[in-house]
Every structure is written in C-alpha cells, then in structure tokens.
C-alpha cells in the first residue's frame, strides 16, 4: 500500500532488516547473544554417542530368546476344573474283542513296516547294481552320477486330498487375516 | 592360629572322622545355568553329501503333524542318518472371513492354527536322497504340506524373538 505514493527513483526496502535504503547488507544482522562455541556441541554429541554405545552393549549382552511355542503350553482352563470322566465298565467279551483287534492291528502294521524295509533295501540294492554297471561303462559317467543334485532342494509337495476338486465350484469371497501373537524381546 | 588350623585325625583310632557331618546332608544339585541360544555351525556338505537339510512339515492338524514328524525322525534313525535337531516352529493363527451372499459385512468363518515341525538332518548321501524322499512322499498323509530345503541362518533367525530396540539403535548408529 505504501508503494503507490512513493516516487519511482527511491528504491524499496527488500527486508525489514535493511534499515538504510542506499546501502546493501553484506552479512546477516548480529544477534544479541554471541554464537555458542563449537566445543560444547562436540562434547554433548560425544556424550550422547557414548550413552547409545552403552545401551547397545547392554542390549547385545542379553542372549536372543526363542519364541515360545503355544502348542506345548497347555491352556489353564484344562487344568483348573476337577471333573473326571466316568467310563462304563467293559464286559469281558468286549475287552477280549478289543485285545484281539489290537493284536490284529499290530500284526498288520508289522507286515506293512517289514514290506517298507524290504522295499527300501531292494531300491538301494538295485541302485548300487546300476551304479556298478555304469562304472563299467565309463568312469566319467559314474562320477557325474555320484555327484549331488543342486536342483533337488528346495523340494515342495502338498499332501494328497481325500476328494478331487469339485468342477465348477464357486467359492465365496473372503480373506485371511494373520493374527499370530508377535513376541518382542 | 596354626594350631587350630591342623586337622589331625588318627586313622587307626575309633574317633577317626568323628566330626564329619556333610555325608548326612542331602546332595546339593549344582545350579543349572541358562544355556545361551547359539546357532550351531551350518555344514555345507561335500560334493557327494548334502549339508544340513530341513524337512519341514506343515499342517492345520496338530496331532497329524506331530505323529508324522515322529515317524520321519524314527525313519532317519533306522536308516542311520544323523539327525541334528527336531523342533517345532511357532504356531500361526489366522482368521478366515468370508463375504455373505446378501450383505456387505465380512463374517467370521473359522480360526485356523497352522503347525509346523522341522527335522534337521546332516550327511545325506547324494545316492540315498531320492530314495528317502520317495519313502517320505509315499507315507505323506492328507493335509500335510512337505518342504525339504537346505538349512540357512535366516531359518534359524526366524525362530528367535524380534528385538526392535536393538534394531532401532543399530539404525541410529550407522
């Protein structure tokens, strides 16, 4: 608003620090207090750094802890109540039947286990025979076959499913939220 | 003082060991010091042997995964494969929400807990590895996800608790 009536030849003040209109300020205006010396700053910084280092040492001294596994911690509600299950008494025929069934199951599982051991043995033997024959064919081929396979790991496989997937099944929309408890030390 | 210090007891005399009483006190069990959780050295393995291999079994069914881990452990023992460790990873809980047919609100369907067990083996020979994998695969139950991979430091670190303060300080320092 004051610029409207000032004559054009008088220059305007750039800032309020510029008290005279003809001179130009070469340096910023001096404050009332003299500037703080640099030594105090450096000391403060060093003290801060040392404090941080001490804190770091203390934290590093504490050994890292394993995350507690919730599977192995029984919830309290199962140990608080004193209720006891009362089962009906078994008749001798029933207990006899159960024992015989258990024996049959044991025998079945034993046969299964032995068959598995036999199969593993057969696999290993046939593998050794094949490697022997390969060695006779050529030493280089044998050495290349003995080497470990880098592409074997990582090996991933989903378990088989009870039923095949339904054709044309439209699942409802939804989402999964991970609510695992995060433990911090 | 020297006279009081000497404990002379004549072994032939009936008064030998008359002042002993420590044998009457109950045995003191030495205090168990907390063992620091340290990472064991990860072997890289030679050209004909794999180093540390992790067999990770994941499932939503706890009993199933435990029984299968026991089976794999026993199988490795039987086949004389060295088992370093057999441990469990922390359980992961997740909430499954689904969108109702007529409505915009998400409804809670179920809370699922995912369990994981790891059997760590060492010194698996290159010729026997495919046989072992074949056996484990043939016995894999339904709903169990199998993953066999090399053991790394990152795998070990994932078992430990996170330390945000330490990380913050380290970030500030550097």
TrEMBL record, chain A:
<dbReference type="InterPro" id="IPR019192">
    <property type="entry name" value="Ribosomal_mL40"/>
</dbReference>
<keyword id="KW-0687">Ribonucleoprotein</keyword>
<feature type="region of interest" description="Disordered">
    <location>
        <begin position="25"/>
        <end position="55"/>
    </location>
</feature>
<keyword id="KW-0175">Coiled coil</keyword>
<dbReference type="InterPro" id="IPR039145">
    <property type="entry name" value="Ribosomal_mL40_metazoa/plant"/>
</dbReference>
<dbReference type="Pfam" id="PF09812">
    <property type="entry name" value="MRP-L28"/>
</dbReference>
<keyword id="KW-0809">Transit peptide</keyword>
<keyword id="KW-0689">Ribosomal protein</keyword>
<comment type="similarity">
    <text>Belongs to the mitochondrion-specific ribosomal protein mL40 family.</text>
</comment>
<keyword id="KW-0496">Mitochondrion</keyword>
<protein>
    <recommendedName>
        <fullName>Large ribosomal subunit protein mL40</fullName>
    </recommendedName>
</protein>
<dbReference type="GO" id="GO:0005762">
    <property type="term" value="C:mitochondrial large ribosomal subunit"/>
</dbReference>
<feature type="coiled-coil region">
    <location>
        <begin position="117"/>
        <end position="144"/>
    </location>
</feature>
From TrEMBL, chain B:
<feature type="domain" description="Small ribosomal subunit protein uS10">
    <location>
        <begin position="54"/>
        <end position="149"/>
    </location>
</feature>
<dbReference type="GO" id="GO:0005743">
    <property type="term" value="C:mitochondrial inner membrane"/>
</dbReference>
<protein>
    <recommendedName>
        <fullName>Large ribosomal subunit protein mL48</fullName>
    </recommendedName>
</protein>
<keyword id="KW-0809">Transit peptide</keyword>
<comment type="similarity">
    <text>Belongs to the mitochondrion-specific ribosomal protein mL48 family.</text>
</comment>
<keyword id="KW-0496">Mitochondrion</keyword>
<dbReference type="GO" id="GO:1990904">
    <property type="term" value="C:ribonucleoprotein complex"/>
</dbReference>
<dbReference type="InterPro" id="IPR027486">
    <property type="entry name" value="Ribosomal_uS10_dom"/>
</dbReference>
<keyword id="KW-0687">Ribonucleoprotein</keyword>
<dbReference type="InterPro" id="IPR036838">
    <property type="entry name" value="Ribosomal_uS10_dom_sf"/>
</dbReference>
<dbReference type="InterPro" id="IPR027487">
    <property type="entry name" value="Ribosomal_mL48"/>
</dbReference>
<dbReference type="GO" id="GO:0005761">
    <property type="term" value="C:mitochondrial ribosome"/>
</dbReference>
<dbReference type="Pfam" id="PF00338">
    <property type="entry name" value="Ribosomal_S10"/>
</dbReference>
<keyword id="KW-0689">Ribosomal protein</keyword>
């Amino acid at each position: 608003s004051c610029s409207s009536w000032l004559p054009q030849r008088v220059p305007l003040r750039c800032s309020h620090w510029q008290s005279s209109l003809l001179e130009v300020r070469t340096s910023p205006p001096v404050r009332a207090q003299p500037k703080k010396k640099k030594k105090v700053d450096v000391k403060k910084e060093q003290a801060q750094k040392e404090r941080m280092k001490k804190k770091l040492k203390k934290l590093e001294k504490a050994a890292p802890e394993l995350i507690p596994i919730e599977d192995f911690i029984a919830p309290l509600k199962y140990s608080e109540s004193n209720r006891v299950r009362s089962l009906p008494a078994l008749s001798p025929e029933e207990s006899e039947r159960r024992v015989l069934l258990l024996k049959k199951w044991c025998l079945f599982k034993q046969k299964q286990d032995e068959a598995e051991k036999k199969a593993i043995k057969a696999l290993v033997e046939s593998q050794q025979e094949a490697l022997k024959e390969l060695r006779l064919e050529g030493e280089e081929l044998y050495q290349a076959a003995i080497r470990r396979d880098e592409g074997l790991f990582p090996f991933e496989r989903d378990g088989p499913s009870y039923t095949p997937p339904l054709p044309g099944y439209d699942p409802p929309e939804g989402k999964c939220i991970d609510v695992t408890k995060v433990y911090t030390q | 003082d020297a006279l009081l210090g000497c404990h002379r007891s004549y072994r032939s005399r009936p008064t030998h060991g008359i002042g002993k009483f420590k044998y009457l006190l109950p045995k003191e069990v030495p205090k168990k010091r907390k063992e620091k959780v340290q990472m064991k050295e990860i072997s890289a393995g030679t050209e004909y042997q794999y180093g540390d291999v992790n067999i990770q079994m994941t499932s939503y069914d706890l009993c199933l995964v435990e029984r299968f881990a026991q089976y794999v452990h026993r199988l490795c023992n039987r086949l004389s494969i060295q088992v370093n460790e057999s441990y469990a990873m922390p359980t992961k809980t997740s909430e499954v929400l689904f969108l109702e047919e007529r409505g915009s609100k998400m409804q809670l369907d179920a809370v699922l807990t995912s369990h994981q067990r790891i059997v760590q083996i060492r010194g698996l020979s290159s010729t026997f590895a495919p046989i072992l994998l074949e056996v484990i695969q043939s016995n894999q139950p339904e709903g169990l996800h199998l993953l066999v991979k090399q053991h790394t430091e990152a795998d070990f670190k994932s078992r430990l608790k996170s330390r945000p303060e330490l990380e913050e300080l380290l970030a500030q320092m550097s």
